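To whoever is on call:

I kicked off a structure prediction for a single chain this morning and the downstream step that reads the tokens threw a length-mismatch warning. I double-checked the sequence; it's 234 residues and nothing unusual in it as far as I can see. Pasting both halves so you can look.
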Amino acid sequence: MSKAQFSEILHKARADKGMSLRQLSAHSGIEFTRLSRMEHGTRPAPGLPQMRRLAELLSLNMVDLLVSAGTPREAVEQLLWVERLRQAKRAVTLAEYSPEGHRAGLKNEFTAHVISRDGAFCTARIGSETWSLIAFSDATQLRVMIPPEAIHVLSEDPQGIMLTPCNVFRSRIKKTRKVGALSNLVLEVGGIELNALVLRKPDQDVSLNAGDEVFISISPVALSTEPYGRLKGR
């Protein structure tokens, strides 16, 4: 598929289906005015759930649609993979941990101030560190949710062996506690406290202790973002 803009793909697919803007708006749940501006290229693409709905309604390939909205193709499969893992409800095998309600996850919500954009990729400030994010919004402030299970804790700097771009920061463990088969680590990263959940091997003792200096690695596509101020549960 040639490199086409999201607005062009959206307009052509809708016309091919013989749907009016109002019909597409009604079926997709996207406001008519916003949808019209998307087709004219004056509004950014919507979030992932609405992108999927558009792909279903217009018989479009989800990967191509995300790429047309500015997401590099190499990041798209990982983005969809992360979402599929969430939908699979992996928590069944992780004892008492529940991604949607565990307090470790509830504490990992922060306000990010966007510094620059390249399509859907953003750099933003959280605390005193600069993070890489994916956001399908032109908002200058974002609410960022960091899944505790998406944080990889390492004893050495992984930058030299990383195969894909990741957020990598030096950190210090403030405290640890057991959560079923997991260890909940409270990490100090750039002036914020971040909760990580690390699977403990049954045949080993926990080797990570309060006061240890570690590195953390978090993929940009594992982070959930939305415009700051939007109500949760939308």
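Update from on-call: the warning came from a stale cache, not from the record. Cleared it. Sanity check on the structure: The chain has two domains: 6-69, 103-227.
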